[in-house]
Amino acid sequence: MGLDYYKIKKNILRARKLVIRGTSAAGSGHPGGSFSMAEILGCLFGNHLRFDPKNPLWEDRDRLVLSKGHAAPGLYSNMAVAGYFDESEIDTLRKFGSRLQGHPDLKCPGVEFCGGSLGTGLSYSVGVALAARMDSRDSRVYVVLGDGESDEGQVWEAAMTAAKYKVDNLTAFLDRNFIQQDSYTEKIMPLDEVLDGDDPSEMWKDASRWKIGDKWRAFGWNVIEIDGHRIEQIDAAIRRAGETKGVPTMIISRTIKGKSVEHMEDNPQWHGKAPDPAMVPVINLELDSQFMIAPSIIAGDMADLAGEVKKCADGRADYIHLDVMDGRFVPEKTFDHAKIKELRPLTAIPFDTHLMISEPARHISDYIDAGSDIITVHAEATDESGFGEICDRLKGGGVGAGLAINPGTDLPEWSHKFLPSLDQIIVMSVVPGRSGQKYIAETHEKMAKLGSVLKECGFSGYVEADGGINLENIGSVFADGARVFVGGGAIAGQSDVRAAIRGFRDEVLRARRRLLLEEAGRQGGEDLVQKWIGLHVVGKKQEQIKRIAQEAGL
After folding, report:
1. CA distance 299 to 437
2. Environment class of residue 157 by beta-carbon count within 10 Å: exposed (0-12), middle (13-18) or buried (19+)?
3. Beta bridge partners of 487
4. pLDDT at residue 539, rounded to an integer
5. Which of 157, 178, 201, 338 has the fewest CB atoms within 10 Å around its CB?
6. 200 has a pLDDT exceeding 80
7. Among 3.20.20.70, 2.30.38.10, 3.40.1400.10, 3.40.50.970, what is the CATH number of 290-495?
8. pLDDT recorded at residue 316
9. How far apart are the first and last CA of the chain?
10. How many other C-beta atoms lie within 10 A of the C-beta of residue 366?
11. What is the pTM of this model?
12. CATH 3.40.50.970 boundaries in the chain
């Protein structure tokens, strides 16, 4: 069974939007800490927790304890997505008589722990894990701790207890976002090293300063350190924790407070502050505008594809794009499922497999078994019946399903019935199978028309732009509606892949900021534009956005 990457990603987006909806309606709450743990809870609810929303007290369920209880909106939003209650109930957050109180309470079915007082969740979780073992149940206990919460001495008493009793059915996450209520954690009670300035990203980026893992190891725990916003790393860590015997596991998750909303990111103000309702449409557009970079490794050294995969992983690619050509559907031939299976152990980064092959239905199972996370087939190579069979196999295997169209092809009418359940549409902006081509300019108009069709048909996935994408055109391609960008020669063909990916990100970020400025203008004119700009107080963001606004005449 695959990771089901896109299903988890879509659920995380739904949950983040519900956090914004609930806190803005309440006029209070904690969006920052809810967003820093969004991927953690998305992976747990999407792929690992055993639970039954219709029977919340099922005895053999796994338990999820939110020790950092102020991040309750993040828990409630995931519970709503999982089906514990209707998503509309999030509008009652923090209201008198609501089941969704400011901190989790057992009055809400599915809540396992009243997380008001910080520092107690781990102790409680140790007890629950011990009880499960005494009752010979194979259920697991997961607990999410805050880094500011780790100032509490009871956390470390519980850590010693868990190690003493070898509660290996307990997995803890430390949401290591470097911010607590008053300031940055490293200025109050350092868990790593003292922070001299006001830029926690310096701590996040410099692994030589990370000390907290050593503390947990000294207390007898199995420690796994990850990027807490990488779905594939979280999923792999949870699996490793489940296989570890004799000791509890701590997954230290390096996260960003307020992740996915720029003005909230790394900003202590958003620890416990609700967004202005007037700003919600702009924030929702920003959430909808998250993007991914996918280097195509065939643009690198075809004789050393393993080395190309490693360079993409080191460069922090979101996906690794695998162009499979069979010499029949396109004139060129690259590699097949055997090579993908060989490359799969090299990284947990999702494999975005683009099948430019004839008769894809005959071969789809091979590419699922090889470890692909997303598989896209061409509309020109299949029909309604064949694609229906392909989708069934992909969904059954936990693999994202995509459909690609060539420059001279429109989305076929038969595909419309599949669009609500599809994860990805690839729009080719070069003729596949020919190297060294430039981006076909007519693709801009095609993307605009396609966007309206996708919206009408209820498509909730991602549009991927593939072919001739570079620093000069990626901003306009983003404006067209693409959210996944395949980089061939402009990324994989470069000597410094990390720098090339960073350049792509910077250009898309610039285009996204302009899009959000325009949306703020539509929603509230110049006043809202200025208010939105004024929210960006961390680092140099505000002056950068002001320049974009001036250039755009906003």
Report:
1. 12
2. middle
3. 295
4. 87
5. 338
6. no
7. 3.20.20.70
8. 96
9. 49
10. 14
11. 0.96
12. 25-266
